[in-house]
């Protein structure tokens, strides 16, 4: 926003914009959200994100343990993110989590498959996954609506950027508060 000589939103204003595709985010942030202006903002964003911003995050406490437990139980884990898969791969490698996922799916840099519904549909078809054995777990409404549109069980989590009201409104089948609750979730869905 600084490079575009526009007001920089506060952290509080930005929290609600984390997660959805950048086209949507800049569509809300820019005073004149034309396609050209949005594309320019994305280019500027990625200039910094590619080398610096990509690593300005951390793994939520308890997530690595929960993911390792799922893998140990034989659960196939896939990542479905609106973030371009080239960045998602680098982030998971950086935090040494990539080995826990059977597949990493994200959008293309040109915006292809940035819609969560289409991305999940692509993942399911590519991997030959049965919907009745699949649960979409996510922290934002896009995760839940994408899962619901693909006839999946959906679980909203409260340790990300979304909140309980957002997840309920999106129609989450279940909401959990802590990463440790993921083990209970697996037992619930597997009937153990």
Structural key phrases:
globular, 192 residues, 12% strand, Rossmann fold, 2 domains, alpha/beta
Give a structural overview:
- By secondary structure, the chain is of the alpha/beta class.
- The chain has two domains: 11-55, no CATH class; 63-190, Rossmann fold (3-Layer(aba) Sandwich).
- Helix content is 45%, strand content 12%.
- It contains nine helices and five strands.
- It has a three-stranded parallel beta sheet with strand order 3-4-5, covered by helices on one side. The chain has a two-stranded parallel ribbon with strand order 1-2.
- Strand 4 (153-157), helix 8 (164-170) and strand 5 (174-176) form a beta-alpha-beta unit.
- Helix 6 crosses helix 7 (141-149).
- The longest helix has 15 residues, at 35-49.
- The termini are far apart.
Within the CATH hierarchy, at the fold level, what is the topology of the largest domain?
A: Rossmann fold
The CATH architecture of the largest domain can be given as 3-Layer(aba) Sandwich
How much helicity do the residues have? 40-55%
Strand content: 5-15%
Strand order of the largest sheet: 3-4-5
Query: Would you tell me the overall average pLDDT?
Result: 92
What is the element string, with H for helices and E for strands?
A: HHHHEHEHEHEHEH
Largest sheet data: 3 strands, parallel
Number of domains: 2
Distance between the termini: 50 Å
Q: Structural class, please?
A: alpha/beta
In total, the number of strands is 5
Low-confidence stretches: none
What global shape is seen? globular
Q: Class of the largest domain, according to the CATH hierarchy?
A: Alpha Beta
Q: Mind telling me the C-alpha Rg? A: 17 Å
């Amino acid at each position: 926003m600084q490079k575009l000589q526009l007001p920089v939103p506060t952290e509080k204003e930005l929290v609600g914009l984390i997660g959805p595709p950048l086209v949507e985010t800049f569509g809300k942030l820019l005073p004149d959200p034309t396609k050209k202006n949005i594309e320019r903002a994305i280019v500027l964003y990625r200039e910094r994100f590619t080398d610096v911003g990509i690593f300005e995050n951390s793994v939520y406490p308890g997530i690595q343990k929960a993911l390792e437990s799922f893998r140990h139980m034989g659960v196939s884990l896939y990542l479905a993110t609106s973030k371009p898969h080239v960045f998602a791969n680098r982030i998971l490698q950086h935090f040494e989590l990539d080995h826990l996922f059977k597949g990493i799916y994200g959008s293309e840099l040109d915006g292809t498959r940035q819609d969560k519904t289409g991305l999940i549909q692509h993942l399911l078809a590519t991997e030959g996954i049965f919907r009745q054995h699949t649960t979409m777990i996510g922290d934002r409404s896009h995760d839940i609506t994408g899962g619901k549109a693909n006839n999946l069980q959906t679980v909203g989590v409260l340790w990300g950027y979304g909140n309980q009201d957002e997840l309920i409104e999106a129609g989450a089948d279940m909401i959990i508060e802590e990463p440790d609750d993921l083990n209970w979730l697996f037992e619930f869905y597997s009937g153990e």
